[in-house]
């Protein structure tokens, strides 16, 4: 079993970028703050805020040195980007392609010389059905925008909960998820098409054989059994991929009291 460990790194030479589905940023705030103070990522993408914009705990993050941009939504959804010691510059609060889509699933900002997107892709269940159709349509819009970003000629990271298990190696041995939208061929094919546009799955690139799970359901004792899935991904465009040094998952965060059902995934990049 592979577990992430604290990395000693010369901070002036490297940059740490993480993604974390917090499953209610207000409810999990003590857990999130504790993790930020302990691990000190430079840029953080958060998903599933489950709060309106006015309830986002911006001040709590500022108190520990992080500035934020966010796109919240009551009850579910919501995404944010945090930057330590500098202000992120907001570039988008929605994925282009559908002006009628009001779900808060995408936010994009420039931070520390990188264009970063925090993504919370639709779950899509039950499948087939309208929710799955929305998932695939959202994926198509993401593929289109990712192609546009590739043409910008700047370093880009797409990070977040993609709600896709890319291969059978990214889930514990089970038939429980047969037919689930997370594993359906259409979902996997769409994720593969994103990668085919010149993006590198950073975690899998550096850990080609380990499971590297990032999600363990609260149901059926799945955390204790290590019955996990890899849903949270950091995708790098060709400009920034050569700067990739390390990648991992902070599994221990999932085992804390009142934890999210996800654990943070992270990469360490060489600074330019």
UniProtKB/TrEMBL annotation:
Task: Provide the protein name.
Answer: Exodeoxyribonuclease-3
Any Pfam family the entry gives: Exo_endo_phos
List, alphabetically, the SUPFAM superfamilies matched.
Answer: DNase I-like
List, alphabetically, the InterPro entries matched.
AP_endonuc_1, AP_endonuclease_F1_BS, Endo/exonu/phosph_ase_sf, Endo/exonuclease/phosphatase, ExoIII-like
The record's remark on the cofactor is: Probably binds two magnesium or manganese ions per subunit.
Q: Name one GO biological process term.
A: DNA repair
Instruction: Please give the family membership noted in the entry.
Output: Belongs to the DNA repair enzymes AP/ExoA family.
């Amino acid at each position: 079993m592979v577990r992430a460990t604290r990395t000693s790194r010369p901070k002036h030479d490297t940059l740490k970028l993480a993604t974390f589905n917090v499953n209610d940023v207000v409810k999990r705030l003590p857990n999130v703050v504790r993790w930020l103070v302990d691990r000190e990522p430079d840029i953080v993408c958060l998903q599933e805020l489950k709060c309106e914009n006015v309830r986002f705990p911006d001040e709590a993050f500022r108190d520990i040195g992080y500035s934020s941009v966010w796109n919240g939504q009551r009850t579910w959804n919501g995404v944010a980007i945090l930057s330590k010691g500098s202000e992120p510059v907001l570039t988008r609060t929605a994925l282009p392609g559908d002006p009628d889509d009001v779900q808060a699933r995408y936010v994009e900002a420039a931070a520390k010389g990188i264009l970063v997107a925090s993504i919370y892709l639709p779950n899509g269940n039950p499948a087939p059905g309208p929710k799955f159709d929305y998932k695939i349509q959202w994926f198509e819009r993401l593929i289109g925008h990712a192609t546009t970003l590739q043409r910008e000629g700047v370093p880009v990271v797409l990070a977040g909960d993609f709600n896709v298990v890319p291969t059978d190696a990214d889930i514990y041995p089970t038939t429980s998820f047969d037919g689930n939208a997370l594993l359906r061929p259409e979902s996997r094919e769409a994720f593969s098409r994103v990668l085919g546009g010149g993006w590198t799955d950073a975690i899998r690139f550096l850990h080609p054989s380990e499971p590297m799970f990032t999600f363990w359901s609260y149901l059926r004792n799945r955390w204790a059994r290590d019955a996990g899935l890899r849903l949270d991904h950091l995708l790098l465009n060709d400009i920034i991929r050569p700067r990739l040094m390390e990648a991992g998952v902070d599994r221990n965060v999932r085992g804390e009291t009142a934890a999210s059902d996800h654990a943070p995934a992270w990469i360490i990049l060489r600074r330019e």
